[in-house]
Write a structure and sequence with these properties.
There is one protein chain. Helices cover about 0% and strands about 40% of the residues. It has a four-stranded mixed β-sheet with strand order 2-9-8-5, with no helix packed on it. The chain is elongated.
């Protein structure tokens, strides 16, 4: 009997908000998206949607989210990112809000 791909991926332990410092450099890793999929073996790919996607890069294979621009809290304090996970047939989406702070410390979820 063959396993069918009948379940979408799901985001595991994914926060809805991340607080990051505005002094982080371009290329800095913000977080890593984690998903699970009960259909095995399954390869998950990731996509990023929303108005602020030009400020972030989401590696489609690893789920690593990094900065492509320096963030400025005075210009925009919140960035809403829609993240999609796909197993090639099924898809799931989540919303991640990145809140830019003035703190030198980064609150990172990896």
């Amino acid at each position: 009997m063959l396993d069918r791909n009948d379940s979408p991926p799901s985001f595991s332990d994914m926060p809805t908000e991340l607080f990051i410092s505005e002094d982080l450099p371009i290329g800095h890793v913000v977080t890593k998206v984690r998903t699970t999929d009960p259909d095995t073996p399954t390869r998950i790919t990731y996509s990023l949607f929303g108005d602020d996607v030009n400020k972030f890069n989401l590696d489609p294979e690893t789920g690593v989210l990094s900065l492509t621009e320096v963030l400025d809290r005075e210009t925009k304090a919140k960035h809403k990112l829609f993240i999609q996970a796909s197993d090639g047939i099924q898809k799931a989406e989540t919303l991640l809000t990145v809140i830019v702070s003035i703190f030198k410390q980064q609150f990172l979820w990896i």
